[in-house]
Amino acid sequence: MQAEALALGPANATELIRRAAGLIFDVDGTLAETEELHRRAFNHAFARYGLDWQWDRAVYKELLRVTGGKERMRAYHARLAIAPPLSDADIAALHRIKTAHYTELVETGCCRLRPGVIELLAAAKARGQRLAIATTTSHGNIDALLSQALGASWAAEFDAIVAGDDVRHKKPAPDVYLETLARLKLGAADCLAIEDSANGLIAASRAGIPVVITRSMFFRDEDFSAARFVLDDLSELDVAKQETEKQPHAQ
After folding, report:
1. What is the C-alpha to C-alpha distance for residues 89 and 147, in angstroms, rounded to an integer?
2. Whole-model pTM?
3. What is the gyration radius of the CA atoms in the chain, in angstroms?
C-alpha cells in the first residue's frame, strides 16, 4: 500500500490538495524541522533542574512515540524505574524551562519552514481554502515558530488553531482533529491533513480525514501505508499548476 501511494506521485497529491475545502497542518516536523530544537531544549531544562538526563537523538526518536512533552518526561522517568516519580510540579517546572529555551532557540531564526510550506499556504489562500492547525504542541510553541516564520499576525491566516492542551487526549487519539473539524464546520471528507508521523496519521485517520505525509527527520522510516500520499517535502507539489487550474479559461 505504501509503495502504491508513492507510485501515484506528487501530481495526484497536488490534485487531492487542490480539491480539499480545508487543509489541516500538523506543526512539529511538518511545517518545520523543530524536533531537534525541542530535544536540545529538553536537555537544557534537565541540566538547569539538576537532573543527569541526556537525550541523544536515538533516545529522543524512541520517546517521540509518546506525544506531548510532559508525557514524554513521565515515560522516560518510568523507564528508568527510579522511585519516587517526578511530581506534577516538577514536570510543570521542567516543561516551563524547556519551553522558554525552545522559544529562545527559535527566535534566533535558525528554524525556517520546510520547503514548499509557504508556497502551499499562499496557493491555498488564493484558492479560498480554509486553513487550520491541529497539533500536539502548545500554543506558545506554535506562536514562537510561526511569528518568526510568518510574522506577528500569522494567526489571522488560519481559520482554526487547535493545540494539545485544547483537547483531552493527544495524538494518536483523534480529539485534536475532531475539534478542528468542529471549528471549521467542515466534514472530514472535505478536508486533508498534512502530517509527518505515524501518530499524526493515525489521529487524522481515526477522525476520517485523508492524509498526505511529508517525511521528516525523526519519522521518515515509520509506517505510512494508510496515507493517501507520501512526499519527501511539500516542494514536490506543483503549486504553479494549482494556480493555473484555478484561473477561468480565456473566452
Report:
1. 29
2. 0.90
3. 19
- pLDDT tens by residue, 63-97: 999 999 999 999 999 999 887 889 999 999 999 99
48: CB partners within 8 A, 6+ apart: 97
The pLDDT tens digits for 191-204 are 999 999 999 999 99
**Known active-site residue 26:** yes
Question: What region, left, alpha or beta, does residue 29 occupy, with left being phi > 0 and alpha being psi -120 to 50 degrees?
Answer: left
Q: Are 102 and 84 in contact (CB under 8 A)?
A: no
Mean pLDDT, residues 99-121 taken together = 95
Choice among 26, 175, 196, 238 that is catalytic = 26
- What pLDDT score was predicted for residue 11? 83
Model pLDDT, residue 244 = 43
- Burial (CB count <10 Å: 0-12, 13-18, 19+), residue 135: buried
The cell 501505508 sits on which residue?
A: 225
CB atoms within 10 A of CB 219: 24
| Whole-number percent of the chain with pLDDT over 90 | 87
Q: Enumerate the β-bridge partners of residue 113.
A: 32
As a whole number of angstroms, the distance between CA 200 and CA 103 comes to 23
Asked if 204 and 172 touch (Cβ cutoff 8 Å), the reply is: no
Q: Which segments within the chain are labelled E, that is strand? A: 22-25, 130-134, 160-162, 191-195, 211-214, 229-231
- Is residue 223 part of the annotated active site? The answer reads no
Distance between CA atoms of 131 and 117, rounded to whole angstroms? 12
